[in-house]
Write a structure and sequence with these properties.
alpha/beta
Length: 250
């Protein structure tokens, strides 16, 4: 009997220890950024998106488990239109047709972002507007839209040449004498350091665009939104978040 009681006590203790995860809601994080620094290795869950998901889970008080799923932007948009439950990291309301932030819930800003203009150090470009890259090659990433430039390609004789990833675009621009690249500051910071190309590439003083990045939350996920906002609103003073950003050179 004492041995049986001890086993029962151990089982009860283990059940109590695991209780928060047993009733925690799994919140899907739909990630359409498939490159660094957001996603470095999906198999081992390395990257900024996985780090943020783990921090949100850790700071949810056992209420939520945030799980990252990679999917194309078109499929993500379909899920949003169907009203399926999920959240999107690193989003901006203008990118999701929600200018007055009435369609979805939006967190406080996670990061401030810029689209930088990169060019070879041997032929540096200081960007003002699309005319700054007239008669040049615009090295783009397939599927990306470059507002204010794409509309003027023919007018300014800008030849858009697309590659599959931002990493490939930076490598290309480092050896392309008459090219320019528009890329997010997060990707630029990571790849310029990772590929050791800082000395070969010029970064324009003026960016192509500036914006804030938020967490987009489907309207029905009120509890998840409260968890996200409670943590994200204090990100700027969180030393653990600062260490994560430093890890990626951000």
């Amino acid at each position: 009997m004492p041995k049986y009681s001890a086993v029962r006590a151990l089982v009860s203790l283990l059940a109590l220890f695991h209780a928060p995860l047993a009733w925690a809601d799994e919140i899907e994080v739909w990630e359409y950024h498939s490159t660094a620094p957001f996603v470095i290795d999906a198999d081992t869950e390395q990257g900024l998106s996985y780090d943020l998901a783990r921090l949100l889970t850790k700071n949810s008080g056992g209420r939520h488990i945030f799980s990252v799923e990679l999917l194309p932007r078109l499929r993500l948009d379909k899920r949003l239109q169907e009203g399926l439950p999920g959240v999107v990291f690193w989003a901006n309301n203008h990118w999701f047709a929600d200018p007055d932030k009435s369609k979805f819930r939006w967190s406080s800003p996670i990061l401030s972002g810029k689209n930088l203009v990169l060019s070879p150090a041997s032929n540096p470009v200081e960007y003002v507007d699309a005319r700054s890259i007239a008669n040049m090659d615009l090295i783009g990433v397939r599927g990306h839209v470059y507002s204010g430039v794409d509309e003027r390609l023919a007018e300014l004789n800008i030849r858009r040449k697309d590659v599959s990833t931002e990493e490939a675009a930076i490598e290309f621009i480092s050896v392309k004498p008459d090219g320019a690249l528009i890329i997010s500051n997060l990707a630029a910071s990571y790849f310029l350091k990772d590929l050791q190309l800082k000395n070969k590439i010029h970064v324009s003083k003026l960016p192509h665009a500036t914006y804030d990045r938020y967490v987009l939350v489907q309207p029905d996920l009120g509890s998840a939104y409260q968890t996200i906002e409670a943590y994200v609103s204090g990100l700027a003073s969180d030393p653990e978040w600062a260490q994560i950003l430093a890890k990626y050179g951000l």
